[in-house]
Amino acid sequence: MIQLGNYNTLEILRSTSVGLFLGDDEGTEILLPNKYVPDPIEIGQKLKVFCYLDNSERPVSTILEPYIIRNEFAFLEVAEISAYGAFMDWGLEKHLLVPFREQRLKMEKGRKYVVHCYLDEQSFRLTASNKLDKFLDNEKITKNLNDEVSLLISRKTELGWEAVVDNKHKGLLFFSDVFKEIRIGDRLTGFIKNIREDKKLDVSLLPIGQKMLEPTSELILKKIKEAGGFLTLHDKSSPEEIKEELQLSKKAFKKGVGVLYRERKIAIEANGIRLL
């Protein structure tokens, strides 16, 4: 079955004046317009294409790669506003509609928003929504503490940054756990910090406990080497200085330095740390 809003690997059935007709194992056909036909091609060859509805609401395929696919999240720019809603640039000729009812706040042309792409069951059209919570499920958390996850930063709150976790869950990255510049739309690697009884999920940019030591110490070691073998950070350095230089908390910095010292990779001096 050909899936609209997703990639499909289809067989080239025949060539016509308007393009190639591709088909699946169930006998369903779809057009690949001439402007997207690669060269060379052979009848019977398999092509990976993205399938969607064109401006005339006809199913078509393309070899272009959209910025978002069905049932996923992405950070997209509003290309235009119409009487129907906001149309997002998702890398294809036909823009992706976010109806007014699916906008958490009224969208503006030229601004970017995190949206979710889904197939509207009533219109059978690919649609996007900025009301992300409807598509996130924290009732069935599929992760464990300290698991590595992907994060898509979606919103800034009073406590920290909300994030889409592994395209499934809603998580919160507290300001106290952030030691680098973050913006809405950033895709980051994170770790599960806490799974609360109320199903809220806390995430961090660094693993917790002992697992934090290896990447932290490696980062510090790399920075020392980049600085020519001596880094002017030490036990008396302010948290702000450490954050600016390493994007780490002072606590994480001290633990990482301790690991390197015990491994005899550095010497701790009064005004910094030196590579051995």
Give a written overview of the molecule.
The chain is elongated. The protein has a five-stranded antiparallel sheet, with no helix packed on it. A five-stranded antiparallel sheet has the order 8-7-6-9-10, with no helix packed on it. A five-stranded mixed barrel has the order 11-12-13-15-14. It contains three helices and 18 strands. The chain folds into four domains: 6-62, OB fold (Dihydrolipoamide Acetyltransferase, E2P); 73-133, Nucleic acid-binding proteins (OB fold (Dihydrolipoamide Acetyltransferase, E2P), Beta Barrel), CATH 2.40.50; 148-205, OB fold (Dihydrolipoamide Acetyltransferase, E2P) (Beta Barrel), CATH 2.40.50; 210-275, Orthogonal Bundle (Arc Repressor Mutant, subunit A), CATH 1.10.10. It is mainly beta. It has helices at 213-226, 239-246, 250-262, and strands at residues 6-15, 19-23, 29-33, 46-53, 59-62, 73-81, 85-89, 96-99, 112-119, 126-129, 148-156, 160-165, 169-174, 187-195, 201-204, 230-231, 266-269, 272-275. Strand 12 and strand 13 form a beta hairpin.
Reported CATH architecture of the largest domain: Orthogonal Bundle
Termini separation: 62 Å
Could you give the order of the helices and strands? EEEEEEEEEEEEEEEHEHHEE
Q: Reading side by side through the largest sheet, how are the strands ordered?
A: 3-2-1-4-5
In CATH, the homologous superfamily of the largest domain goes by the name Winged helix-like DNA-binding domain superfamily/Winged helix DNA-binding domain
Number of domains: 4
| pLDDT averaged residue by residue | 90
- Give the CATH topology of the largest domain: Arc Repressor Mutant, subunit A
> Which blocks of ≥5 consecutive residues have pLDDT under 50?
none
**Highest-level CATH class of the largest domain:** Mainly Alpha
The tally of beta strands, per DSSP, is 18
Gross morphology is elongated
Summarize the amount of helix as a percent range. 10-25%
Largest sheet: 5 strands, antiparallel
Number of H- or I-type helical stretches? 3
Structural class: mainly beta
What percent strand? Answer: 35-45%
Radius of gyration: 25 Å
